[in-house]
Amino acid sequence: MIIVLKPDTSKRDEQAVMREIKKLGYKPHVMRGVERVVIGAIGDERTHANLETLTTWPQVERVMPVQKRFKLVSREAHKGNSTITLLNGTVIGGKRFVVMAGPCSVESEKQLLTTAHAVAEAGATVLRGGAFKPRTSPYEFQGLGEKGLKLLAKARRETGLAIITELLSEQHADMVADYADILQIGARNAQNFQLLIAAAKTGKPVLLKRGLSMKIEEWLLAGEYVLANNNANLMFCERGIRTFETYTRNTLDLSTIPIIKKESHCPIVIDPSQGAGRADLVAAMCKGAVAMGADSLLIVVHPNPAEAWSDGAQQVSLELFAKLMEELKPFIAAAGRE
Amino acid sequence: MIIVLKPDTSKRDEQAVMREIKKLGYKPHVMRGVERVVIGAIGDERTHANLETLTTWPQVERVMPVQKRFKLVSREAHKGNSTITLLNGTVIGGKRFVVMAGPCSVESEKQLLTTAHAVAEAGATVLRGGAFKPRTSPYEFQGLGEKGLKLLAKARRETGLAIITELLSEQHADMVADYADILQIGARNAQNFQLLIAAAKTGKPVLLKRGLSMKIEEWLLAGEYVLANNNANLMFCERGIRTFETYTRNTLDLSTIPIIKKESHCPIVIDPSQGAGRADLVAAMCKGAVAMGADSLLIVVHPNPAEAWSDGAQQVSLELFAKLMEELKPFIAAAGRE
Amino acid sequence: MIIVLKPDTSKRDEQAVMREIKKLGYKPHVMRGVERVVIGAIGDERTHANLETLTTWPQVERVMPVQKRFKLVSREAHKGNSTITLLNGTVIGGKRFVVMAGPCSVESEKQLLTTAHAVAEAGATVLRGGAFKPRTSPYEFQGLGEKGLKLLAKARRETGLAIITELLSEQHADMVADYADILQIGARNAQNFQLLIAAAKTGKPVLLKRGLSMKIEEWLLAGEYVLANNNANLMFCERGIRTFETYTRNTLDLSTIPIIKKESHCPIVIDPSQGAGRADLVAAMCKGAVAMGADSLLIVVHPNPAEAWSDGAQQVSLELFAKLMEELKPFIAAAGRE
Amino acid sequence: MIIVLKPDTSKRDEQAVMREIKKLGYKPHVMRGVERVVIGAIGDERTHANLETLTTWPQVERVMPVQKRFKLVSREAHKGNSTITLLNGTVIGGKRFVVMAGPCSVESEKQLLTTAHAVAEAGATVLRGGAFKPRTSPYEFQGLGEKGLKLLAKARRETGLAIITELLSEQHADMVADYADILQIGARNAQNFQLLIAAAKTGKPVLLKRGLSMKIEEWLLAGEYVLANNNANLMFCERGIRTFETYTRNTLDLSTIPIIKKESHCPIVIDPSQGAGRADLVAAMCKGAVAMGADSLLIVVHPNPAEAWSDGAQQVSLELFAKLMEELKPFIAAAGRE
Description:
Four copies of one chain form a homotetramer.
Chain A: E1 2-5, H1 11-23, E2 27-32, E3 37-42, E4 60-64, E5 84-85, E6 91-92, E7 98-102, H2 109-122, E8 126-128, H3 146-159, E9 162-166, H4 173-179, E10 182-185, H5 193-201, E11 206-209, H6 216-227, E12 234-238, H7 256-263, E13 268-270, H8 272-276, H9 279-291, E14 296-300, H10 318-334
Parallel strand pairs in A: 7-8, 7-14, 8-9, 9-10, 10-11, 11-12, 12-13, 13-14
Antiparallel strand pairs in A: 1-3, 1-4, 2-3, 5-6
């Protein structure tokens, strides 16, 4: 930690800060600048008390951490790229680009199976579909629950696709893990740490969406909860952040691709559907994500978007999805992927 | 709902929209403007399918909802101001201004009881203190758990203060409700709907903090989950939103006071400590909140802020708290409160 | 400046950083932590080259400035509160609370004089009114220009009110200064440094609105342009920042009051009308601003808001303004003002 | 415009709204919904008074515009893609992808000519370089002024590159236009409408950067100021918006590429250097921009980034630039460009 004292701090007030730093287990180191005194507190910031409390002291102007707070998810902890292998052989984070696709909500057997067959044929290897849905209003459709999970399992048997579905409640962790190949933690629960721990403990791969106003460091630290609970199969998923712009539902922050690749060894997935909230922007977003080095896309697809039970505006039709998969090919090749 | 068609939409494409509107249970009503055709879809937007899916249609430019989506929390549902009466006689939302105060985390019996006696003496009637703490990093102090709750209960017996503490997990709902007078739902869980439902079902009053990037409508709808689960004792708590500004930890949005008073009958509480993240700004924030018509303040107080186990920078000392309570008096009087 | 090196940086790469620091005129000072090496660069950051360029070096993890970048506007440069005295005797920043009020745009002699007499009678001492209007669309009313300035001068002669009006163009600086007592720099021009310099050079007091997404440090630095051009009569005006919230037009950041008071000696004015964008929230905002220690309010008032030529939704009627002035009295007293 | 009345509005209050709508030149059209009355006001919203003032009326809940406010920049005004041809033959917005590159500031003849030759050789056809620099602090390097412009002209003569440079002041418009092929309006001046008009009137092509917190509609309307002043050679340039994220200097919003292409006929340029504020993210951003359909890139390049006089952290070295140009080729081909 670096502690910056105010100009004209007395020797006595400086000494008091020094004593406190020692008391909290750090070794102080003084630097006298032209206007201000700066004290370095030497010691591991992750195992000692946080010195930010010193900002309440009148003689202290600022306290600046030096270390990164995340460990296990960091590139320093694991130099190579981590890969996650699913039961159907799909490898996320490897040379082969992975597409996950499916409806926002599981609505019916027909809707799901139609979609599953279509996306499998177009080249997707993972099927997405929500059985438990977090809805802004209590009066909106909340998902089919376990019945939806059973339909997902049926779609897997029929198509060979792996299954990704959202975990909403600690109390469902075992049940959802029984059906799913990947547990999705949604944006609204991205800092619901109890849920992250419950998900990690199932042993299933976890896809962690970025919260609507989550800084990248907070996102990495939320992921740290998964690895710290003995589950190494974590992937990050950018799905747009909340900004002042209202043209799109969220602002998809594609810069997270090179940043996560730089800071972490875990795969990065892009969800362009939530990001834009508009199906007509999805194709361009997908191309950008591929070009920038994403490992995978998570695309919302529906046989009849206009009649979807949730988030119709962002769902791509089966025809558009097949066309999009074709259009992505040269970009996947240009990015050095298969 | 209002559906705006693109300029030069053909009669046939217009008819298709009309048919879909009817199919989804609304009655269409056409208005021809100078450039665009606008269709009103008449029907209760909360009980019919959402027409926003129409935005995926090529001939549709925009879909605009007309109704407000929240019901039970709305001022229209209940014209007067709701009040919440706690077991120790404290009434939140009434003529008397209420102060809730206490440490960020319960750390020890001595720390808690010292604080409790001091804040009670200065005029607070509710004691805050976290036993389960949501922490950005898994390596930070996570709270004393049930031991912390027992200390809070002891402080209540000794001082007569009511207790407010955070509920972090559905699985703790009954246990926390056994000890607490008010269940606090934190900002990170503000759209953890399963937790909101679990809190509502305990029957205890619920204080719902605004999420870091939650729009006011979403906050009201999250509150709707509490009332819709048969718990009328809901209060909203503004604690700052996330913006681009980094001088303060969050931007305390005091405009929520007149807005919540206008849109809802539920009490509004202001948390200036989380809002500013800096103890030196808390006093001014409190005065502003009182003047603008808040029902209550939730202030973080610690006997020795510099040694607090969490969020020291925002904790006010016991001396400053007593001084602040004095300073607030003329503003409380000016606001027509006691 | 503090330069943090990456873990495992070689001695040679460390030496290269040291050489560069010396070359740019600083004296390097090394601190060896448990994981990282930190180098303090000692020297005045405002007169030497910026070391942030070092972040492009592969061995550098982060560069953190230590000094504040603003000087003349800072509380350190001038311990007391600066006051600004206008020709009609109004003192901004003193013991007496100042109210500035008037229409968004000057529309006609009748509209302006009616408003001027009404606000003067209710207790305002400065008249606001735009003669040059920055409008989002080129098809909206752009102001009466010099004709509007002449009407403002006439209103001053008739009522004794001082005049504040917006300066939009460097080329108008002398003309606008001939008529106005205070030059207002609008939010959209808050970092139009050429305009700030032109305004400063007229010698007239300058009111600098905060830009829509301006950090407090940037605002202080924009103010520094005025003082650095030999004009000490600067006041800051908070008028709301842009956030994700859409209920209000902007989010009025009242925490700027204690912050500007802490960091600077210049007066702080609050504009609740632009901040909320809704007349029904203005009264509460004004009370909060007074309670938190603002020096002055800038309120948009119109004889008939529904027929205003610009921004009608945020303009308060003459009757509401008179009522508001009465309601503010106890809060002004509670804040220790007159 | 659509005017939504509050539930339970009396017939009399409804009539009053109808009268006002007529008075302001619109034709009212009533729709009675299940809970609310909605009134459509038929007429051209761009040539009549703005009905948003009605939101100040107590019986009015909301006023919603129906029309888009921009005309000349819109895709509806011009179905094809506009192209801009520079004197050296470069066409922006056509089949050939255009790269603009050069230093943040012009510092010296040697620095500029070295860079110009290098970027020309690597394939750029436009040279960027700031002669007048808008700096957050008055104590930072403000540019070489006209001397810088002369150096740019010299570089053009030697290399055949076209020149783009920033216009900071209305008073420099003619001088800067004498030297430049494209006038750049920077983010801080994006709503400095007087400057936009001055730039338009020179007749030179204008590149309009997006303001830090500018909504897309506002950006299009700012562009409308250029076209409405008889200058059709406008291009938009996304350079990142301000959000809560601090890892990057700004958040580059690549979704603007498909959005500008959908809403407007003007070319779209991406500035990844300002967007990221970090040279190590520039390559990925460029690839994403190409894949998503941008017409051009504006890249900050410097012979020795660590010694740049401004914004060193975001400047790419000559070697990295040449490498990047090679890496972009397969993505340019995949995007169907040359």
